Amino acid sequence: MSATAENRYRAAALFRAELRRFLRQSEDCARRFGLTPRQHLLLLQIAGSETGTTTVSELVRRLALTQSAVTELVQRAEEAGLVARKPSALDGRVSDLRLTEEGDRRLAGVHDALGPERERLRALLQDEPK
Amino acid sequence: MSATAENRYRAAALFRAELRRFLRQSEDCARRFGLTPRQHLLLLQIAGSETGTTTVSELVRRLALTQSAVTELVQRAEEAGLVARKPSALDGRVSDLRLTEEGDRRLAGVHDALGPERERLRALLQDEPK
């Protein structure tokens, strides 16, 4: 491989290595607060939506998972007391999902604990072209 | 949940949604070029290292995988004709890994195909605080 080809991949390789480190730490952090990595992302996407509530269809898009995977994820989170649903005010056939107090408490725990790692990743991404 | 708490998670939620989209597309793209997602990252980390060669120990760090997972990944990539090894010039007990021509060709294919997505992610990350 030529020196040019080496340089060509260097920034992307560094970015991916940092990203895997961040994601691994995010997963470990979620587990410390009694959440699976997917539950953490589920809670984050619900809480981070514009109104603090969202629907399964919207989660399919944001989590890049299938409808059936999201449906099961939501059901387990509901059974675990992390998420609650009620019929949407806009469309009674659809359920709005929101966090319970316990879901909110655990998400806040993970989010705060990950703060320094998020900062580190942001700084790296701003320094470095990909 | 208060309006303050909603806003607090908004940027992180958008970042994670974009990230999952990017990673999903990266995986799909790798498969189109006959690579597993992990093989793609393996080839990228080898080609993106400073000299275009690297060692299993270095890959353990960069891929955030266990020693045995990396060893197996390298072995399969070697069997698939994507990676070659030779004793390190610095330490004969260690193998230097580099891409074969076929490995280089497939990595270049994935890397070029992913270019627009990488650009999109970079633009989003620069616009948006996490």
Structure notes:
Two copies of one chain form a homodimer. Chain A has 130 residues and is mainly alpha-helical. In chain A, 68% of the residues lie in helices and 8% in strands. In chain A, a hairpin with a 7-residue loop joins β1 and β2 (95-99).
The ordered H/E elements of chain A are HHHHEEHH
Portion in helices of chain A: 55-70%
Binned strand content of chain A? 5-15%
Using CB atoms under 8 Å apart, which protein chain pair has the greatest interface? Answer: A-B, 43 and 43 residues
Straight-line N-to-C gap of chain A: 20 Å
Unreliable residue stretches of chain A: none
General form of chain A: elongated
Number of helices of chain A: 6
Record the strand order, biggest sheet of chain A.
Answer: 1-2
Determine the mean pLDDT of chain A: 88
Structural class per helix/strand content of chain A? mainly alpha
Q: What's a concise summary of this model?
A:
The structure is a homodimer of 130-residue chains. Chain A has 130 residues and is mainly alpha-helical. Chain A contains six helices and two strands, in the order ααααββαα.
Relevant terms:
mainly alpha, 6 helices, 130 residues, elongated, 2 strands, homodimer
Which helices and strands occur, and which strands form pairs?
2 copies of one chain form a homodimer.
Chain A lengths: L2 H30 L4 H11 L8 H8 L3 H13 L3 E5 L7 E5 L1 H13 L1 H13 L3
Antiparallel strand pairs in A: 1-2
Helix pairs in contact in A: 1-5, 1-6, 2-5, 3-4
